[in-house]
Amino acid sequence: MTITGAPDRGVWLRQFTTTIGTTTAAGTTTAAGIATAAGTGVATGVGAGGRVVCFPHAGGSAAFFRPLARSLGGRAELLAVQYPGRLDRFDEPAVSDLRELARQVAAQLAALDDATPTAYLGHSMGALVAFEAALLAPTAPVRLFASAARAPAAIRIDPAILVDDRSLEEEVLALGGTSRAVLDNTDLRRMIFPAIRADYEALRGYVPIPGARVDCPITVLTGTADPRVSVGEARRWRNHTAGGFESRVFTGGHFYLVPRAREVADVVVAALHRQAHGDR
Description:
Blueprint: E1 2-4, E2 13-15, E3 17-20, E4 23-29, E5 34-39, E6 42-43, E7 51-55, H1 66-72, E8 77-81, H2 98-109, E9 118-123, H3 125-136, E10 144-147, H4 165-175, H5 180-184, H6 186-205, E11 218-223, H7 231-234, E12 245-250, H8 261-276
Parallel strand pairs: 2-5, 7-8, 7-9, 9-10, 10-11, 11-12
Antiparallel strand pairs: 1-3, 2-8, 3-6, 4-5
Helix pairs in contact: 1-8, 2-3
């Protein structure tokens, strides 16, 4: 089994396709602006159980969701948002206003004009971007999965984190998503640090609309050893939905999703299945 995804410049959405057999690196871009990968094997990631759009964490990229795409296999289609300022969009300025970032993503998602039941899954900062994008969506997602994130009304970013590069670096290392070796590599640091700083500036400046609620159920996903998000803080997301609410806890830290991708995929698929049968 291979996961492929074609990164076309300027494209906001990556479609990771699970294939069996030999794959090629060639890709095409649809009218909706989705990068798709071509393969000579048998495509299984065609989204028979619906679609999940994934929003990365601060400093993260669409590639973070490859393990989840692999775990979903053919049970649901996965699209991952590629924010400006990283990987193949490195030459574009990162967006340091979270609500503006959500507005730009929402405009791209509005082009998905098919009838596929679509859920949003955001990890850390991505949960807030997904929440704001859901508020703007002409049709609400069928469910919002908020992973490793405090609820919008509970967001707090210590201003000291942005005082200098060292303080921001220590925060990133504390979360465990980036190694010291990466940050000590001059070329890699030059590539990723501007986006990390812009994302933290977006988080620091984010003020949710008082009383804002999405018109869909929310499932909160939390790691048992997350140093920044307690289970109790995460469960405050229940105040931001006009629909149902549930909480799932996984063994691991802030980036529990990578080693627990299969478990998370099972939760996503089960929720989409319930949604398809009218159980919110």
